[in-house]
Amino acid sequence: MPSKTVTVGSSVGLHARPAATIAQAASEAGVPVTLATGGGDPVDAGSALLIMTLGAKKGDEVTVESDDAAVVEKIAGLVEADLDA
User: Fold this and answer.
1) Do the beta carbons of residue 75 and residue 22 sit within 8 Å?
2) How many angstroms separate the most distant Cα atoms in the chain?
3) How far apart are CA 57 and CA 9, in angstroms?
4) In angstroms, what CA-CA distances link 9 with 17, 32, 68, 71, 75?
5) For 48-85, what is each residue's pLDDT tens digit?
6) Of 15, 18, 52, 71, which one is the catalytic site residue?
7) In a 10 Å sphere around its CB, with 0-12 CB exposed, 13-18 middle and 19+ buried, how is residue 62 labelled?
């Protein structure tokens, strides 16, 4: 299964606004997507609430995983972006 580990770029980490943006993109992808931090259990990237439970802060590493490599790249790009800018 394709995966990519990236660094959180949003200045507030993966909290409300960034989590909602990522969750919307993951939901629209039409395939399951998960996010995980440092060996933790993966969470459904289609849920902003579950994304926020990761507690990922700016600079933390997050692994994006999905059956679709293009979706992994898209979601990974959002995790890396400063979505609060």
Assistant:
1) yes
2) 32
3) 9
4) 13, 23, 23, 18, 12
5) 999 999 999 999 999 999 999 999 999 999 999 999 86
6) 15
7) buried
pLDDT digits (tens, 9 = 90+) for 7-36: 999 999 999 999 999 999 999 999 999 999
DSSP state of 66: E
State the residue for tokens 């949003």.
10
Residue pair 35/48 in contact by the 8 Å Cβ criterion: no
15 is catalytic: yes
**Adjacent-strand bridge partners of 63:** 5, 36
Nearest to 76 by CA among 19, 3, 20: 3
Stated pTM of the model: 0.95
